[in-house]
Amino acid sequence: MGNKGVIREMKLLAVRQVLVIALVNIAIMVAAGQSHNTTNRVLSGDGSLDQQPVIEDTQDALKLSTDLVNVVVTVTDRSGKAIDGLQKESFRVSDDKVEQPISFFSEEDTPASVGIVFDTSGSMDEAAMQRAREALSGFIETSHPQDEFSVIGFGSSPQLLLDRVRDGKAVLDKFTYVNTTGNTALYDAVYMGVEKVSHGVYPKHAIVLISDGEENNSRCSFSKLRRTLEESGVVVYTVRVGKPPLPKSTGGLVMDQIAAITGGKAFWPKNSESMDQAFEQIALELRRQYSIGYIPTNFAADGKLHKIKVALAVPREVSRDMVVRNREGYYAVAKPTAR
């Protein structure tokens, strides 16, 4: 297939899910008999207020402004194995403790825009980084064949090494000769990763952060990064590697928090086998995620964080063996009207 055909195929795959969401919105608004003034007040895909449902198709990104709040949900068993095959009726969604009707549901195995963010600072262990490279090879093989990857390395500052490519070998090549030196701008690197994958061609966005979790050189504060993560809907998986932590180190806590905020997961592999398992689990989770959309019945553009809770509507004897993960919430912020 020529380059033009590949690009056209990528856009069609991304557009399909977006168009389905848009059609659901139109059907809901018609059924509810909403007025013109009501349709002008809608939520964007990140949960903020926008003017009207708009699909913008550009060379760099495909974005959707819609009144649906979209939540990426992962369901696993107690061992961490991703569970697929659940139906819309298997889920319940609450927005600030108010149950919401589910307006959109998808469990399709669709490609993702993935950011690989890895630590090259002086606190890292070069041997561990090479083990991570070997495990990353399995991750790429297990991932969706049409996933696109951005690669960001960071020491004292983040550097974009690859920008949205579908070449797994090119990704691995960036790990071949890693020179670990300098301070650690972890927050800045994750912030850059969110920006990159959010402008990816696919609606599904994820980051894999490979680091020891130490931070000492970022301009971005943790509070700013936290809000960015909550607004973006990007799912972050953290893999802690490197030298043994120093006394009173907060690196592990940082990695755990970043993953938890987004509905991702933190991994602490202790050997090559557990590292292989971690990367394989991440790849499988990305392919078995559920996309759930709802229109907040209790929406208020108050600028506050609205907490999202997703629970399983299945018998207790079944649900007690399952773990549900999703992002913490979204900020309900009204965007100014364009003039």
Global geometry:
globular
Helical coverage, percent range: 25-40%
Please write the string of helix (H) and strand (E) elements.
HHEEEEEEEEEHEEHHEHEHEHEEHEE
What is the radius of gyration computed over CA atoms, rounded to a whole number of angstroms?
20 Å
Q: What's the pLDDT, averaged over the residues?
A: 83
The assigned structural class equals alpha+beta
Number of discrete domains: 2
CATH class of the largest domain: Alpha Beta
CATH structural fold name of the largest domain:
Rossmann fold
Strand order of the largest sheet: 11-10-9-12-13-14
CATH superfamily of the largest domain: von Willebrand factor, type A domain
Largest sheet: 6 strands, mixed
Work out the strand percent: 25-35%
Alpha plus pi helix count: 9
Write up what this structure looks like.
It is globular and about 50 Å long. Helix 5 runs parallel beside helix 6. The strands form five sheets. It has a six-stranded mixed beta sheet with strand order 11-10-9-12-13-14, with helices on both faces. Strands 8-15-5-17 form a four-stranded antiparallel beta sheet, with helices on one face. A four-stranded antiparallel beta sheet has the order 7-6-16-18. The protein has two domains: 150 residues, no CATH class; 175 residues, Rossmann fold. Helices cover 33% and strands 27% of the residues. A hairpin with a 5-residue loop joins strand 1 and strand 2. The longest helix has 30 residues. By secondary structure, the protein is α+β, with helices and mostly antiparallel strands. It is built from nine helices and 18 strands.
